[in-house]
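To assess whether the prediction recovers the assembly geometry, we first specified each molecular entity separately, as shown.
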Amino acid sequence: MSLLHILDLLSTFTFALVGARVAADKALDYGGIAFVAAIASVSGGTLRNVFLGLRPIWIIDPWIISSIIAAVILTLVFRRVTHIGRSLLIMDTFGLAVATMSGVQLAREMNTTWFAAILLGVITAVTGGLLRDVLCQVEPVLLHRETIGTSSLVGAATFVALLQLNVAGNLSAILGGAVVVATRTISIHFDLHLPRFNSQR
Amino acid sequence: MSLLHILDLLSTFTFALVGARVAADKALDYGGIAFVAAIASVSGGTLRNVFLGLRPIWIIDPWIISSIIAAVILTLVFRRVTHIGRSLLIMDTFGLAVATMSGVQLAREMNTTWFAAILLGVITAVTGGLLRDVLCQVEPVLLHRETIGTSSLVGAATFVALLQLNVAGNLSAILGGAVVVATRTISIHFDLHLPRFNSQR
Amino acid sequence: MSLLHILDLLSTFTFALVGARVAADKALDYGGIAFVAAIASVSGGTLRNVFLGLRPIWIIDPWIISSIIAAVILTLVFRRVTHIGRSLLIMDTFGLAVATMSGVQLAREMNTTWFAAILLGVITAVTGGLLRDVLCQVEPVLLHRETIGTSSLVGAATFVALLQLNVAGNLSAILGGAVVVATRTISIHFDLHLPRFNSQR
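The predicted structure of the complete assembly is given in tokenized form:
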């Protein structure tokens, strides 16, 4: 199994878990939950592949779909778990780190420029959560309060910079992912965020 | 004319009719109606083609656009028809069946795996209606109450299963489409739907 | 630099400026502003390229990203400029004209049919503004009141018609763009718009 494949499976499973729970909390039916879980978990990687001229990975690999189905079933079975807020946030942060690395990794394998690799890392990581929130009519956290985009961007830049410095691929991915997790965790813990724009209106 | 082409034209026309009517009921102007009709009718097939590495069919075939224009003109001409709810639902169900079959059919022609064929059938069928509802700021029926996704999924699985059993392609498509229509009609008639998720919140 | 490249850079910069200002007026943070500016400015051209089987231009060309970053910085620096409504509208109209021409131009270079060229021109021009409004939860101007889609369509058709009449490419693009600007300006000035659909409900 390649690094990319492992990263894709991990991020798909965690994003599907988070997506299924968000959909369940909005009282969607089982079909809606499965749909939101699928969109939340594969749309980022799908965009990444389409932009690079490849078929989406769920067309090729049955394990992607299996991991979404597993996540949905888990969500429906463990429905009585109520105090899940903190675990969800941890999973979402983990998925964000892994998806960022998978985007950079594929861009690198496809020989894009470094700035395209950073952008593709961010797109892979943030698209699913954004669509999840739009579909569930939750205010998109990407656009407010949170530091999802910033964390992903800093981590992707770290991964790319380490590769430029000839650090080994797997180690660079791990360090880049750690930067994503650290940036998001620190920013949430200290309530750091980018400033808002205050116009004189 | 190939099976795929006939299916695409039929689903485009019916989805455009439904989309134009939904947009008209939200009091959009003529341009908005044409826009929603176009999105509702071609976005599913466009996604299907892009995922399979092909150009969207409306780039290649002028009949797709012509059928959308015809649907919009029909909607504007027959504006006094008020009791259209039931006919719309029948058309939407028919379009759903045809689009599901077109997605499976193209996936099959492009030699995807069976699970990808099922997924592409569902994506082809449900995308347009979902975007239509988001654009018109109607609550997406896909996520609530209705059984659009389930009907499409069951029909796509039927088509794929029949093909695996070496039933002829055209017959398999007709039977698969009939399953879509039957599943949706029965579920609406008996008010069946997938259960909702009741958490203990 | 090719005609297409110049058109893409111009439309990206102006759409990024407009997008950043709309996001700033909705009090998004700096990250949200950059994100909306990026989506508003590149999504039309990205769809255009994906539909034609090409990689998005921002994967290949670092100047696209640079022009978005410049637009965001300009917006943040000149935050005290309050009476910007009229300038924004002028910029948005200019971006619309340029993006329409870029869509037609690329379609022409890729040897599509004339109706596909017109459609790709409109898609390139209107997608960014539509997504910008959806993300910022502003009512999409494309669907109401304004004549963005109509102006783009008329200009794209003009460009295509002039090319069919063997007018030189650059001249055709300038005239087509002028038609977009004229159509939108006249329609706003005289408050012209397409009629709404009045059903008997």
